[in-house]
Amino acid sequence: xAEPMERHWLQMxxxxxxxxCMLFSMPTLPACSRESRSLGPGQxxxxxxxxxxxxxTYFEDNLYQTAQGGRYFSWYGxxxxxxxxxxxERDLIAVQLRHSPSFVDVYASIAHHRGVSFGHDGMxxxxxxxxxxxYVRSLRAxxxxxxxxxxxxxxxxxQAMSWSxxxx
Amino acid sequence: MTQKxxxxxxxxxxxxxxxxxxxxxxxxxxxxxxSLLLLMLWVCGILYMLVLGFLAMGLWRLxxxxxxxxxxxxxxxxxxxxxxxxxxxxxxxxxxxxxxxxASFLLERRLAAAEARxxxxxxxxxxxxxxxxxxxxxxxxxxxxxxxxxxxxxxxxARIELGSADVxxxxxxxxxxxxxxxxxxxxxxxxxxxxxxxxxxxQCAEFCGLQHAKMAFDVKVETPAQFAGWLALQARPxxxxxxxxxxxxxxxxxxxACAMCHSVxxxxxxxxxxxxxxxxxxxxxxxAGTLAMNRGNLQGWIAQPxxxxxxxxxxxxxxxxxxxxxxxxxxxxxx
Lengths: 168, 335
Ligand SMILES: [Cu+2]
Prior knowledge:
The complex is a heterodimer of chains A (168) and B (335).
Chain A: H1 15-25, H2 28-35, H3 54-61, H4 63-75, H5 79-82, H6 92-99, H7 103-111, H8 126-138, H9 144-153
Helix pairs in contact in A: 4-8, 7-8
Chain B: H1 3-10, H2 28-63, H3 81-113, E1 118-127, E2 130-136, E3 143-147, E4 149-153, E5 157-164, E6 169-172, E7 179-182, E8 188-192, E9 198-204, E10 216-222, H4 224-235, H5 244-255, H6 258-261, E11 285-286, E12 291-292, H7 295-303, H8 305-308, H9 321-332
Parallel strand pairs in B: 1-5, 4-10
Antiparallel strand pairs in B: 1-2, 2-3, 5-8, 6-7, 6-9, 9-10, 11-12
Helix pairs in contact in B: 2-3, 5-9, 7-9
The structure holds copper (II) ion (CU).
């Protein structure tokens, strides 16, 4: 009569769908590690020591750190001059594309920012300088929609001395 | 069981009284929801007892022995009465549901009716992970900003307008009001009419990121006179530093990194991203319920916010020990 009901799952009728789901979700797994965050004290308290500083790779490759940089970019009102999409009086994306300054250079130009009152040393906490530099460096790889998406996400957040209220 | 085991067993009972529980209502809205909860408990409890009662009866009758041979089938139940009782049973369920739906409808109407009695307008905005709170000054219509501590006059209906700067949060003060989600892009509001004086605790009730658990706030219900006094104090600019150390602290706060994120009204510190510090020392807690307000905790928070609330968006600012001391001295005087 009926054959025994025990069948390996690979012999089941829906196996193609199952396999396809597994295959399609696999590429998303490595992306998780790019989001990993190290919290608590003991974050960078010194500027990069040179081009080979291992912290540079960590900050540039970490999506959490670059996203935090983007957030502080608007909190500190950088967009007032560099534009909400980092274009404006001084187009940071164009600078990134044209001169491709190193992480150390970008870090230094934020820490010792020329011509702006908050450019004094010590005004921005060190850890944030790392995040801001990583964000500015990531700009050239960010697609236009991605930058726009970030602007929308942060539409309700304060910018330096002004806050227009929550998104309603 | 060890003694600790006994205590753990009692733990759920701890939520029956206290500053953060729906079971000890201290406001109209909370009281209404509490009576709905009781009604629900009674309706569901009685039905549950009935089900268990009939189950026990059935088991008992089975043990006494069913007549052998004629196994009951679905079409011919062994018990002719069962057909009729089934209808009664269905009717009981419908009545119970109607009772609950009706009571909930009436309560909703009562909650909405509070709108006519609104006498105070407060804006509460959720930020990762703290609350910005602004009162509309009844005298001139300007907004008075503070953070993480909500004061309400007893017996007055306040309208609380909720907004979010980043992600979804939820405003929840179980003793006084119900719960209302705080959603970016949506203008939600909730009316509260507190009836009992005291300190209560509010908490974000929608997971909003790393420090969601430490996104609490204190709620103080006080007499209208006390409230008016408190609001007048909050409206004033920050007091001047009282000694040399505090003066140095003020210089650091207003000229350094702090001013990029914090406001101290009456000084040049006008940053908006972080909580308003004008009267920070008049609050009971630091950083949305993370630490008790005192001099030591203030200094600890400034030195290592990431150690006390890992992931918080305030980052440590490197300060010489003497300067950190001066800053804490200054903030401690901002009553
Ligand atoms: Cu939350």
